[in-house]
Structures are given as structure tokens and as C-alpha cells.
Amino acid sequence: MPVFTSDVQILKTGSCVVEPYAVPSPMFIGLKRQLGIGGGSTVSLVHDAGELLVVDTGFDWESDLSPENREKHVSGLCRTLKQVGLEPGDITRVFITHFHQDHYGGVELFSQARWYCHRQALSDCPDHYKDRFLGLDDDEFITSHTRMMATPGHTRGHASLLWSREGSALRIALCGDAIVNLPWLMSNAVWRHNADFWDENAARASVQRLLDAADVIIPGHGEAFFTRPDADAAGYGNTP
Ligand SMILES: [Zn+2]
């Protein structure tokens, strides 16, 4: 019997080793590979009108595609799901914000689910998954109360999800790498170290679009946070 009761739940908080003031250097790559720091993305779960939607799959040590690392990833996710009374087979939909290994690696764990991404990200999808992903358009709903928002910049086809329900005080954005984490946002920095980085102006516009649309941000590599100081007074209280 599932013990999952929230509409939106963070299964795993992604980490990030590169501070917003840092320039990329081999040291960071080394840290990421050797320590696994700054690895997998945030993994979230949306419970919406009978659908169980996983957002990003959060693959740690993204450059290590060995069977051992894959097994570690799978067992970690299964353990996390079990804590909320679920098994991988219970998940009905998966949304991938963009095709970087730390966000989509291990998606095959949810082989029975429907897989979605932004239609413009389909061209970035690895060949062996091409037939599996369904493309969504900007503002299209993936579940009853969750719609996709195109948030390009980090990659051309990057997209986020916005969960919002009538009667609920909070609108929650699941942002992938459009917003890395709160320190990056406060530093006015956007992640641009990826080879397929698309456009800085677009990335900044996407950040603004998300801040305007949401009360709560669930970023790709850090803790969730409110978009304005009074957002938590709207009905949910401010219990930590
Ligand atoms: Zn990324």
C-alpha cells in the first residue's frame, strides 16, 4: 500500500560541485569523477489524478556507465521509492528535462511507463531511446495539473514542469538545469559549462519565466526554495 501522500515530492536532491563563482577547470571534472560529487540531478515524484510521474532520473557518477554504477543507481532509486511504498513498476510516466546523463541515466528502470520530453529535445535523445520518448509542446499538460514549460538556454530543448492546482496555495516548478540551485540563482549565474550550451539570453529569460510562474522552485542540483519571502504564508504555513 503506497504511503505516498504529497502531490509533489522530492525523492532525491541533486548535488553540484561547481560553485557559481568558479570557472570550470580539470579539478572539478576530477572531483566529479573520483568523488561522485556534483553527480546526479534531483529526482521528483508528482502524484496527479492517478498518474505517478517521475521527473528526471538522477544518475550519479554520470561518466561511469559501468554495470556496477548502473546497479548502484538502480538499487538507490528502488530503495527511495520503497520508502514511499512504491516500486518502479508503479510509475506511469517519466519526464526528462534534458538529455544530459545525470538527468536521464537509468530511465530504463521505468520501462513500463510512458516517457516524455520537450518536442525540441527529441533530436538530442540517444538513438537507442528515440522510439520511446513522446514530445510535448510548450504549455502542454503531461498530467491533469502539470504542464510543460519550455525553458531553453542550458540546452536548446530544455524544459521544466509546473504543477498547479485550483485550491492549492502553491505553484511548484520542477526546473532541471534551468535553475541549478539557489546559490547559483542568487549569484545571477547560469550553468554554461556544457558543450551543448544553447544561449545565455534564453537561459536568463527561462529563469525569469520560472520565477514569475512558480511559488516554489525545485532546482536540478539543490534544495527546493520559495521564490519570494511571503510565498509560504499563502496557506501551507512555514514549518520546515
Ligand atoms: Zn544539464
Describe this protein's structure.
The structure is a single chain. This protein has five helices and twelve strands. It is α/β, with parallel strands linked by helices. It has one domain (8-233): Metallo-beta-lactamase, Chain A, CATH 3.60.15.10. The strands form two sheets. The protein has a six-stranded mixed β-sheet with strand order 1-2-3-4-5-6. Strand 7 (141-143) and strand 8 (146-150) form a beta hairpin. The longest helix has 17 residues, at 67-83. Bound molecules: zinc ion. Zinc ion is lined by residues 98, 100, 154, 177, 194.
Give the structure's gist in a few sentences.
This protein is about 20% helix and about 20% strand.
